[in-house]
Amino acid sequence: MSDQPAGTLRTMRYPVMRWLALTLILGMPLAGVIGIAWMSDAVSTRAAWAIVLPILGIIALFSAWHTLAAWRVLRSTDEIAGMGQRTTGSDWDALTMIGELGVTMERLRQTLLDEKGQVALQTTTADAILNALPDPVLLLDGRRTIARANFAARKFFGNDIVGNDLTVALRHPTVLDAADSVLSGETGMAAADLNLPVPDGRSFSVRVVALPAAREDTAAVLALHDLTSLRKAEKMRADFVANASHELRTPLASLVGFIETLLGPAKDDEPARIRFLGIMRDQAGRMSRLIQDLLSLSQIEMREHDQPSEVLALAPLLRDVAAALEPQAKAKQMQIRLDLNDAVAPVAGARDELMQVFQNLIDNAIKYGRAETQVEVRLGERDGGWIEVGIRDHGDGIPREHLPRLTERFYRVDSARSRDLGGTGLGLAIVKHIINRHRGRLVIESEMGKGSEFMVRMPGADRSR
Ligand code: ADP
């Protein structure tokens, strides 16, 4: 076995010996014939040397040229075989050039097989990586045909997208321009924005990048990055700031107006002063409620993902909330009727937050229920270990089309009525976030002219743990 380190050239041992051997083998017949002729005195010694020496010289040159050529072949195959030095033949193999060439070719074969295996592995790995990407990725050939599509792309554009022109997947001119400019070699990378119309209403940023050493079957990669939720979040944030400022501006403007009136025209008007101060107190109260609700909302949003662990019974908590709201109900000659099953399982929850939920819901039932009616608060158990609290009012009801949007911040069915009743438009948004934190659900049912029921469903403490 060879003791040479892997990767070094092991090209042709004994080159000089081989050259001499070849010269000798090729020159022997001639030397023999001339020798016999000399021995039989057919040629003189002088003539024999005169014939043998030049011919031996030519044979030596020919052997040198031949040995050099063989050395070059061995060197090249050795280089191509590179690191794959697994077969290193015996010394018998090394004796002849053909033997050594055979060994080197065997190494070359093994190297190529290894390489083929590596390429197959790399292709499978690249496919797995592409398929693991959440965004759609397409590989384009030089003629803009989709050569490959990852899992997300096939899900998005359809399974039969491969083999079609890019226009079958995306018709947007800026995207096609970006692809064309990369495929034509004009640029190595191009980007475009893609906004899909409703009903999808999705936005993507598209990037087309030329592949290094592009081949005809995969010349560029086109990747889509879904910006829909980012854009939605940006819009929600902007809307929220605009709405919050608007909600604060109105009472603030009213306060400033009354202060100026009191400092000016109504300075000495006692009855007007008393009336205006009352309005100012209401407006300041509205601002303070709004700020309170905004703070609650941001605090709840921050901890929405950790589930509370305190175990509490809902019946006593509902009794406390109802008692606290009794004066408000009385003011409208309403009654809060409790139908609470004390035997229902406790829930895992945060007491203050759950009180806020039921306070907001019962408060709404009083606000939007008709005077002299009842607000019914029910606690029971449903199939599957769910605990349900239902709060029913007898009011005008909520039109069906508003139901899915009621828990959005500042969403109101009737803004003027909500403001007149002192509402901030944030109560149900707070309710929804708290219920999410408790892994529960809010279900709203309403019938026009009859009233609404807001149902809070939560898993029992055992189940949520
Ligand atoms: P608000 O402070 O305006 O009451 P909420 O977030 O609590 O804000 O409620 C959002 C909107 O949902 C209200 O403006 C109102 O239009 C409607 N709403 C809530 N509860 C009821 C209910 N019990 N009956 C009728 N409409 C309701």
Explain how this protein is built:
The chain has 14 helices and twelve strands. The chain is an alpha+beta fold and 465 residues long. It has four domains: 6-111, no CATH class; 133-226, PAS domain (Beta-Lactamase), CATH 3.30.450; 231-302, Signal transduction histidine kinase, dimerisation/phosphotransfer (DHp) domain (Helix Hairpins), CATH 1.10.287.130; 311-464, Histidine kinase-like ATPase, C-terminal domain (Heat Shock Protein 90, 2-Layer Sandwich). It has a five-stranded antiparallel beta sheet with strand order 2-1-5-4-3, with helices on both faces. It has a five-stranded mixed beta sheet with strand order 7-9-10-12-11. It starts with 14 loop residues before the first helix and ends with a helix. The model is unreliable at 1-10 (pLDDT under 50). Bound molecules: adenosine-5'-diphosphate. Adenosine-5'-diphosphate binds at residues 360, 364-365, 368, 393, 395, 398, 406, 412-414, 418, 423-429, 452.
